[in-house]
Request: fold
Amino acid sequence: MGEEMRTLPCRSCKKPLVQRSRWRRKRYCGPWHRVKYTVSKIVELVMEAGAA
Ligand SMILES: [Zn+2]
Reply:
């Protein structure tokens, strides 16, 4: 034993991602979901600024 199967959901699509590295957490299933998440965050901020 001693095998650790840790998972974290993708921040963009919530798909479970197996964490292979102890040091680096994988937060997105691919580079495009990272972009998608970043863009959606910016849009959110802009919308908030526009509403205020
Ligand atoms: Zn994803």
